[in-house]
Amino acid sequence: MKKVYINSTASISAQKTFDNAEFLSEFIDHEGVVIPVVNPNYKDFIPPAAARRMAKGIKMSIVASKIALQEAKLDEVDAIITGTGMGCVRDSEKFLSALIDNDEQYLTPTAFIQSTHNTVGGQVALELQCKGYNFTYVHGSNSFESTLIDARLQLAFNEENNILVGGVDEIGAHSFKLQELVGHVKEESIKVSALLDSKTSGAVYGEGANFFVLSNEKQGSSYAELVAVKMYNTLSKETLPETIKAFLSANEFQVEDIDLVVLGCNGDIDYDGFYEVLIEGVFNETQQAYYKHISGEFNTASSFGFWLASKVLKLQELPDLVKLNEIESSNYKTVLLYNQYRGENHSFTLLKQC
């Protein structure tokens, strides 16, 4: 089996991350219960006439994918694999609203055509003129991890050489309102810098698109090696530490080998206890980081954590704004990511310096 490398990264998020020359040098301390992305200049990547007809998720993904290919010095890839929890939810809402308002008559099909979850992957393929394997995973908060597993298998067995993978989700007004009604969103506005001090139920929601070129061919500019990905639908807090140890052991690592653990803490007092088990237990002597205070919570927010870990391994630095404890690693060789959403869809992703 061949090794799998992360050869480029691109992120459109609630911070100014679309510029790969910087690494969280500025921090936008959003205040609210939902945080929007910092938009790049879409006209630099997409003709304005075409951009006007595109959903936000599509625009974010096209820009991120083009940045990722530019950094990897590629004109095309062999395959595109996309993960999304909600797809182009704004177009879904637009079509359903028109359906109700027009009494199911005189409907234009554009919003319906663009509302399907695989629209993003299709539009990215059209922009890049990629006629290869194109697949979209819609597995809730494990959607992005599913793309990594698929891509890793294809690359490891030499079925493809370069694959574009990405995670994308956008905020829809109606869908967000439903999340508020069922108590998944914090009731009071909060500064994201104080997210973990809130001690209240619910999360601060966000949106974003994070894309990567994975390859079985190492470049001088490669970020890291993707060692392993593992998903669990359910895990208890009691079995979590032993499950992580077993995951590491299966990949010939021990807890002591981990230089940094990146956790998906989102300030929800009802579910952050899963992370507390690790913070105070098995990783209490390991440097810790978190990221959902700067990205917001969404189904593919873990793709932002993947972007963060990749940058740390390449640049060998960890910005202060994501540090969770006072422990400092002398260098970063191995990084473990752990994410879960409301007690379900647990995932472990292991990266190492290449």
Measured distance between first and last alpha carbons: 16 Å
Number of strands: 12
Helix content range of the residues, please?
Answer: 25-40%
User: What spatial form do the alpha-carbon principal axes imply?
Assistant: globular
Strand coverage percent: 15-25%
Strand order of the largest sheet: 4-3-5-7-1-8-12-11-9-10
CATH class of the largest domain: Alpha Beta
Low-confidence stretches: none
Radius of gyration: 19 Å
Give the helix/strand class: alpha/beta
Overall pLDDT metric: 94
**Helix-strand string:** EEHHEHHHEHEHEEEHEHEHHEE
Biggest sheet, in brief? 10 strands, mixed
CATH superfamily of the largest domain: Thiolase/Chalcone synthase
How many independent structural domains? Answer: 2
Protein name: Beta-ketoacyl synthase chain length factor
Organism: Pseudotamlana agarivorans
Structure description:
The protein is an alpha/beta fold. It has helices spanning 48-51, 56-71, 89-101, 110-113, 119-128, 143-156, 173-181, 240-250, 273-280, 292-295, 302-315; strands at 5-12, 31-32, 79-83, 133-137, 162-169, 190-191, 208-215, 224-234, 260-263, 287-290, 334-341, 344-352. It has a 10-stranded mixed beta sheet, with helices on both faces. A two-stranded antiparallel ribbon has the order 2-6. Strand 9, helix 9 (273-280) and strand 10 form a beta-alpha-beta unit. Helix 2 packs across helix 5 (119-128). The model has no long low-confidence stretch (mean pLDDT 94).
